[in-house]
Design brief:
By secondary structure, the chain is an alpha/beta fold. It has one domain: SPOUT methyltransferase, trefoil knot domain (Alpha/beta knot). It has helices at 3-8, 23-35, 70-75, 117-122, 137-153, and strands spanning 12-18, 40-44, 64-67, 82-86, 93-94, 103-108, 125-128. The protein has a seven-stranded parallel sheet. Helix 2 (23-35) runs parallel beside helix 5. It is globular, with a radius of gyration of 15 Å. It starts with a helix and ends with a helix.
């Protein structure tokens, strides 16, 4: 293998939820993240009770990082990594035309709300995609990860 071909696979991504309401959604997102090549998953502002929901035991393969709040998350962001919000905002870029950065963290809002103003302020870019109805947060995250994978930046 030449040095040039080794560089082709560089990059990573993580995905997480701010103020997730249920651990079942964290577990489902974690399982999808493992399947779709994420390096890590995270939560910001945990507010769910502990319960088993990760049937593929993704915790054995990729870490779950827990941050107390947006400031704690910002203090621990990886170097040279873009924060991409997934939210329905007027300035959000359609996922269909979005070019994923090599190094990214994708941030989703809670099941019963939107990303906080502090979280949106932290995001370098925001993406959205159309659906007829509101989607489960883990499903929305899975769609974003699948889009990344199909555009050639997956695992």
């Amino acid at each position: 293998m030449t040095r040039r071909s080794a560089r082709k696979g560089r990059g990573y991504f993580g995905i997480g939820i701010e103020r997730s309401k249920t651990e079942a959604n964290v577990g489902t997102l974690w399982r999808s993240a493992y399947s779709l090549g994420a390096a890590f998953v995270f939560t910001i502002g945990k507010r769910y009770p502990r319960q088993a929901s990760d049937v593929s035991q993704s915790w054995r393969h990729i870490p779950l990082l827990e941050y107390a709040d947006v400031l704690d998350f910002r203090a621990h962001l990886p170097y040279d990594c873009q924060t991409i919000g997934v939210e329905l905002t007027d300035d959000a870029v359609p996922l269909e035309t979005f070019v994923h950065p090599a190094r990214a963290v994708y941030l989703l809002g809670p099941e019963d709300g939107s990303l906080s103003a502090a979280a949106l302020e932290l995001c370098q870019r925001v993406v959205r995609f159309e659906s007829r109805y509101c989607l489960n947060v883990a499903v929305a995250g899975s769609i974003v990860m699948y889009d990344r994978q199909t555009k050639g930046l997956g695992a």
